[in-house]
Structures are given as C-alpha cells and as structure tokens.
Write a structure and sequence with these properties.
By secondary structure, this protein is an all-alpha fold. Helix content is 76%, strand content 0%. The longest helix is centred in the first third of the chain and has 39 residues.
Length: 425
C-alpha cells in the first residue's frame, strides 16, 4: 500500500523535532558535567581554574533559555532558521564552559588524566565567539527568517566565514593555551602554516564577528522603520529586550571602571544573552504579542517603586537609628511599617505617572471610564445613558461592532390584574 503525502511529510518533521530536543538535552547535560569538572579541579588544588562562579550563572541561564526557546521554535517551525540559531547559541555556551573545565583539568591540573584534552584546547578558544556569531544572525534574520533584502547576501557570506576562520585558526594553533601556558602544544597544529598568519587571521575573524553583532542590531532598526502590523509588534519585543540588555551592559561597564573587575561584566553579558532568546521566542510564536505596553508599564512602575521604597526604608532606618540607636529593634519595625503603609499609595501614583507616559491607551481609557462614572450619577435619561455607554465602550475597547440590549420590563400577569380588580370591588 502506498504511503500518503501526509504520512511522508509527518515523519521528517518528527525527526526534525527529535533532533531539536536532542540538542536541547545535550545543552542541559553539559551543565552537571561542568559542575563535576569544577569539583575535580577543586580536589586537585586548582579552584582558580573552575568555570562556575557567581558571574557565570547568567551565562548558564542564557544557555538554558536559548536552547529551550530554540527547541520550541525548531520543533514547531522547523524551516525557520532562528530556532536552530538559538539552539546553536545555547549549545555553544554550554560547550564553552564544559571544554574549559575539561582542558584545564586534563592539561594543567592533572596532565593526561582525561583523554583527548589536547584536541579540545583549540576548540574551546574557537567556541569563545561562536555564540556571539549565532546571536548576530538571530538579529539579522528575525522575525521573517530571511535577510532584510537581497543586498545583504554579501554581508551574510562574510559573517558566515568570519566565525569559521576564527574557529579553524584556533583549532590548528600550535599553542592554544598561550600566553597562560605556552608550553602546552596542540596535536592538531599544522607546522606548514606560519604562526604570524594564524595570529592575524583569527583576530580578524573575531573582529568581524563582533561587527556582525552590531550590524545585526542595526538591521533591526531598518526593519522596524519599514515594518507594519504584526511584524512591527514582533520587532517591538526585540527592542524591549535590547533596551534592558543595554541598561545591564552599561551598568556593568560603569561598575567595571569603578571596581576594576571582570566578573560583573561577564554577568551582564549573560543577562544580555538570556533576554534575547526570550524576546525572540515571544515574537516569533506571537505569544501575548500586543501586551508589550502593559509589560513595559509594569516593569517601569515596579522598578521605580522598588527604588523609591528602598530609598525610603534606608532613610527611615538611618533617621531612627540616630535617635534610638542602630541596634534597636524599633528601628526595623518602624521602617517596615512605614514602607508597608506607603506601598499602595506609592504604587498607584507611580503607575499613573508611568501609564501617562508609556501606556497612554490605558491611561486614556481609565480617564474616560472615570468621567463616565461621574456623569452616570447625575444622568437619569435612559436614551442618553445608552448612547454614552456605547460611545465609552467603542473608545476604550475599540471593538469592531458594539450594540446594547436592554431587557424590557416584565408585563403584569392576568392573575395579578384580576386580584387587583377584585380588591377594588
């Protein structure tokens, strides 16, 4: 019996969905493997070589979120490249941490303890920018899955070749752990290739990858200017995530200048990488697509409320601490009661201010309903109230059609009429 067309097409789609979830599972399995390698490094007396610490937690979250969103997208829309790119982003981040611990334990802490550690040293360096390359292509191909125009084809080829050059340059580099461990060699090194050529080609490829990330973000600006309807709403989700990521990155850079550390910068990069998959998945799946104004309003309102109440709590604690002493329990109790009492009034006031600026539709709807409620107390004409009610519904909810049905008053029954007549007689 011949196989129908539906049966022939269903099987490859199942295999594609299965492949997506296998890659997702590999991303998740890489996390406990990295924890195990960090434990071996601590037992070997090399805790400074471990991968997982507080600043790398956002990167782990980014890897899991990117792989999860990518698996959902790839299993539902297998022909859309962004889902596979997100899977590549999450998997490359996970393998980056895994190969770090594997090579540091197998080449530095316990040389020869792990097989093929020398082969993975260059691969680890090559994975450093692979997730950034995937992120650049996600920005370039979102939300349609194709380039903004045919004129972008040459740049897509360059952006594809750059991470390949970067990866191959490190895979065949004679000293992949240079300059920390210059004595550790690479079994995949090609002696015929001059080392100066590799030291020039790999940085050029890495620079192009970084430029591609900026170009991908700029392409979204061009798309947003030309987009209309649903596509414009999809791009607004990405713009929201990009704004939050930019704030996190600027805060990390400012702290980096003041603290002279790099862990906060790593954490900010992980936050940026975690926001991009979530916004992309919501945009492509069109999940709550038109609720962005409400989300922005709530985010700003509760962010400002946290800052105001936190500052007020600190001010009350410091003020009462000068009078009653810092060790007094009355200080904490008074500050807590003050913050609890000011929460609801402050929340309403902050929400009104934010809605007036960032969620104007909701603010106007609230004002319209409040005005109608005030007129409702004074108006007694039913026809006037009916017209105003329909007008308010059309203005606030904007339905395609609005009508009002009023139940007629009940007619008096014959029994009731006969009873009244009998009483009169």
């Amino acid at each position: 019996m011949g196989m129908t067309l539906g049966a022939r097409t269903a099987r490859p789609l199942r295999w594609v969905a299965g492949l997506a979830w296998v890659l997702w599972a590999l991303t998740l399995l890489a996390q406990p493997a990295t924890v195990w390698l960090d434990r071996l490094l601590r037992q070997a007396g090399q805790p400074e070589l471990t991968w997982l610490h507080l600043s790398s937690i956002p990167q782990v979250v980014a890897a899991v979120s990117a792989a999860t969103v990518g698996a959902v997208l790839a299993s539902r829309r297998s022909r859309h490249p962004v889902g596979w790119l997100l899977l590549g982003l999450g998997l490359s981040l996970a393998l980056w941490g895994l190969t770090w611990g594997y090579t540091r334990y197998g080449l530095v802490a316990r040389p020869g303890a792990l097989p093929a550690a020398g082969y993975l040293a260059g691969v680890h360096n090559g994975l450093t920018l692979m997730w950034l390359s995937c992120a650049g292509f996600v920005l370039l191909l979102t939300p349609t899955g194709s380039l903004p125009s045919p004129r972008w084809r040459w740049w897509a080829r360059v952006a594809t070749a750059a991470p390949a050059v970067w990866l191959l340059g490190w895979v065949v580099h004679p000293a992949p752990l240079y300059p920390e461990y210059p004595s550790i060699g690479n079994p995949l090194a090609i002696p015929a290739l001059p080392r100066p050529l590799l030291e020039v080609a790999a940085p050029i490829g890495g620079a192009v990858v970084l430029v591609a990330l900026v170009v991908g973000a700029w392409s979204l600006v061009g798309r947003f200017r030309r987009a209309r309807g649903v596509e414009r709403q999809q791009l607004r989700w990405l713009a929201f995530a990009a704004g939050l990521a930019a704030v996190a990155l600027l805060a990390a850079i400012a702290a980096l200048v003041g603290l002279s550390g790099t862990r906060l910068l790593d954490a900010a990069l992980g936050v940026c990488a975690a926001l991009l998959p979530l916004a992309t998945g919501a945009a492509l799946l069109r999940y709550r697509l038109y609720d962005l104004d409400r989300i922005v309003s709530r985010t700003l309102a509760y962010g400002l409320l946290t800052v105001l109440l936190g500052g007020g709590y600190a001010a009350v604690v410091l003020g009462l601490g000068q009078l009653l002493g810092r060790d007094s329990s009355l200080v904490v109790a008074g500050a807590t009661l003050a913050v609890a009492g000011a929460f609801q009034p402050a929340r309403r006031r902050v929400q009104q201010v934010v809605d007036r600026r960032f969620n104007r539709r909701r603010h106007d709807a609230v004002q319209t309903i409040a005005g109608f409620s005030a007129r409702l107390r004074q108006e007694i004409d039913l026809d006037t109230l009916t017209g105003e009610l329909v007008a308010v519904v059309e203005e606030t909810m904007q339905p395609t059609m609005a009508s009002l049905w009023l139940r007629p008053p009940p007619a008096p029954s014959r029994t009731a009429g006969a009873t009244v007549a009998g009483q009169r007689g």
